[in-house]
Amino acid sequence: MEEINQQVNPENQDNKNIEEKPKKKSWFKRNVGATIVMIIMLIAIIYLGINLMVKQKEHKEEITDINAKNAALVDSLKKENFTWLTKVFTWTVRSEMLRENLEQVKLYSQELIKYQYVDNIKVVDPSGRVIFSTDMKDQNVITEWSNIQKLAVMQQNNKTIIASPILGNDMILGAVVIEYKN
User: Fold this and answer.
1) Which residues, other chains included, contact 166 with Cβ-Cβ below 8 Å and sequence gap of 6+?
2) Closest to 132 measured CA to CA, from 162, 171, 174
3) Are 148 and 165 in contact (CB under 8 A)?
């Protein structure tokens, strides 16, 4: 019977629709304080994330710069150590050459070549002929190191070549040429 009354009385139906359709406020409108806090937190998280990415990029750049500086410092220290090693070895060769003891020079060279960075050792006479080399194919070959007057350092094919004159009492006895691996 109610159905009939509802069909007959359309006013009743409009009242019900009006009562059923009260607009509900959204959660955000009902909770304005919580919404504001969430928006502030979202902005803070985005800001901190961007700030973190920028700091990481700056940190990586700093690390790259420091690594480059350290590599350059290590290379210069290696070259300095190679130079000192060549000088000391030259003094040793000089003392043995003054005694005309070339066999001892060979023994010293065989020991020095075991050092991980030493690639080749040559002892050159004043005419430029290699009188001893740890690489046998260089024996008796004429080189450009004949009349070296002072210590020379060269970079060549990923190697550092250091040549030092062997100075006698009144003349040049030859030169020591050591090739170092980089």
Assistant:
1) 90, 93, 94, 97, 123, 172, 173, 174, 175, 176
2) 174
3) yes
Token duo for residue 50: 């961007």
pLDDT in tens, 91-121: 999 999 889 888 998 899 889 999 888 999 9
**For helices 102-112 and 32-98, angle between their N-to-C axes, nearest 10 degrees:** 170
What are the two backbone dihedrals, phi and then psi, of residue 93, each rounded to the nearest 5 degrees?
-65, -40
Contact 158, 141 (CB under 8 A): no
Classify residue 122 as exposed, middle or buried by CB count within 10 Å of its CB (0-12, 13-18, 19+).
buried
The C-alpha angle 107, 112, 117, rounded to 5 degrees, equals 155
Task: Identify the burial level of 67 via C-beta atoms within 10 angstroms of its C-beta, where 0-12 means exposed, 13-18 middle and 19 or more buried.
Answer: exposed
> Does residue 124 register a pLDDT over 70?
yes
Q: Which of 111, 103, 98, 81 is nearest to 166 (CA)?
A: 98
Place of tokens 């000391």: 88
Q: Position 129: which residue type?
A: R
CB atoms within 10 A of CB 158: 7
Residue 167: its pLDDT value, please?
87
In angstroms, the Cα distances linking 45 to 34, 50, 55, 182 are 16, 9, 15, 48
User: What φ, ψ does residue 159 adopt, rounded to 5°?
Assistant: -130, 150
